[in-house]
Amino acid sequence: MADRLVEAGIQVTAVGRRKERLDAWVLKHKAERAHGVAFDISKLDAIPQFVKDTESNISIVPAASLPGYSASKAALNAFAMCLRSQLAQTNVKVTEIFPPAVQTELHDYMGANVGRQLGMPLKDFTDKAWDGLLKGEDEVFVGSIGPEDRFLSIAHQRRQTCEEFAQAVLKRSTGKSS
Q1: For the chain, what are the domain ranges?
Q2: pTM for this predicted structure
Q3: d(C-alpha 128, C-alpha 148), whole Å
Q4: What is the average pLDDT value for the chain, to the nearest integer?
């Protein structure tokens, strides 16, 4: 996805654990458009100084076997919805991409033969996410958990309720709505 963004002329800051991969990526795309920041999520004390919003379809429908991961993704989604509401009258656009499981090294702990086969192929995910970004969507859902219509209904109703609640709070606190 980062390659696609740079190729489209967008300046990108990529974040990852492996500095050598980030450095190679920056060299490939030139420093005018590509920047790399190494960050290791296992360094828990550094997390408050470094906020990175990565979503997942699990932010909408939790995985019972991954309670901590599910809760963290739901919290990031709630944070993004609140930011989107707060920044609605500015020129800042909050965009979320909700991936399914994607065939990457993330699942190598299962063994490369098993882990690399889990989920959607990376190219398919990238193509679908890119299409959503090109359409200007501020929530780009790729894949679903369970039937797509039910999954998207849950996500859209959740967002609508958040926006209605934000309007009610704004109206109550200021006497006006945005």
Answers
A1: 1-48, 53-174
A2: 0.71
A3: 15
A4: 86
